[in-house]
Amino acid sequence: MNITILNQIFDSFIIFKVGFLVLCLFHAVFLFIVYNQVRSMDRIVSEKSSSAVLKTVSLISVILAFSLFIAAIVIL
Amino acid sequence: MPDIFIADHKPTTDNEKILKEPHSSENNEKKHHLKSVADRLIHHKSSSHPEEKIRMFSTFYPDPEGISFADQEPDEKILLFLRRHYITNVDWILLALFFTIIPIVFGVINSFNIFNFNIFVFLNFPANFTLLFLIFYYSVVFTFVLVNFVSWFYNLGLLTTRRIVDIDLHDLTYKNVSTTGYSVVQDASYIQNGVIMSLFHFGDVHIQTAGQHGNFELEAVPSPERVVHLIEDYIGKK
User: Fold this and answer.
1) Structure confidence at residue B33 (pLDDT)
2) Do B144 and B28 fall into the same domain?
3) By CA distance, what is A55's nearest residue in B?
């Protein structure tokens, strides 16, 4: 019985699943840091159109990364 | 036949006013100086960027419009905008391309059943995990591109009518913004080291300052000799 539970816990899929979720979360948090840095740099030096594009792109990437994380929780 | 009407041009900036007023000796000196700097900038601008606003990928842009920085004085004008040369981005672009095509290459190899091996099938993972993993993989590659682009985009130098501004951002963790007035600049020089720098005409500009002010370095900027000449025109001025 115990061996069966241990087998289930250490099943390769479970480990990969947890690892993948952790990586997804780290990735999303990292992108949020990138977005914050872009915003803070924009306050230091601002190019009218380019800064807006860069901020939008980084914000979209943060949203996509968190969406991926949520999708991974739901699907896996 | 009526004469052709030509509207009076009203001077809009302080520099233009100085150029218009031919009176005092101080004004004459300033006038001569501004003319020499302006001539060089206008010559370069007309040859490379005819009447355009600064673009997202600009690396060398005299007299830019649509850009401002923190602590900029109301009458302070940006004379020259600098970023690292495009060629300095080649390494990470190639690396990103390499990582982009890896899954495609594996997909093509699998479609021909050459090895007939799929890690996800081997580990008995569901098909949707493969799709999620692929999306995650390309998301990481995109993040790599974004981080490198942001590092390049916000690594810039500005020469204004009052000072030199150096803004550095490395790997999103190291941020350095330093400025120095022309009054403390003692010397400006540039180094073009190696074939790549000579071939693509870029180099490092070193600006030596007096006293406790640290030295400045504008890395891998295009046309470094123009940058040095412009700084030399302003050295010692307050």
Assistant:
1) 52
2) no
3) B150
Tell me what pLDDT residue A1 has. 52
Task: Read off the pLDDT of residues B69-88 as tens digits, 9 standing for 90 and up.
Answer: 888 888 899 999 999 999 99
Virtual torsion, Cα B43, B45, B48, B51, nearest 10 deg: -130
pLDDT of res. B22: 46
Distance CA B138, CA A71 (A): 16
Same structural domain for residues B115 and B217? Answer: no
What percentage of chain B carries pLDDT values higher than 90? Answer: 36
CA distance A6 to chain B (A): 18
Whether residue B225 is found in the same domain as residue B192? yes
To which H or E segment does residue B164 belong? strand B163-170
Last residue of a domain, one of B149, B171, B200: B149
Question: Is B162 strand, coil or helix?
Answer: coil
Residue B234 has pLDDT above 60, yes or no: yes
Q: What is the CATH number of the domain that holds B184?
A: 2.30.29.30
pLDDT value of residue B59: 86
pTM: 0.77
Q: Does A15 touch chain B (CB under 8 A)?
A: no
Among B123, B139, B158, the residue with its CB nearest the CB of A12 is B123
Domain that holds residue B119: 90-149
Provide the ipTM: 0.86
**C-alpha to C-alpha distances, B85 to A37, B59, B135, B203, B217, nearest whole angstrom:** 22, 6, 32, 9, 14
Nearest to B140 among A27, A34, A49 (CB): A27
Interface of A with B in 29-48 (CB under 8 A): 30-31, 33-34, 37-38, 40-41, 43-48
| Tokens describing residue B230 | 């412009």
Q: Which of B122, B149, B176 is the last residue of a domain?
A: B149
Q: Report helix angle A48-75 to A12-44, nearest 10.
A: 160
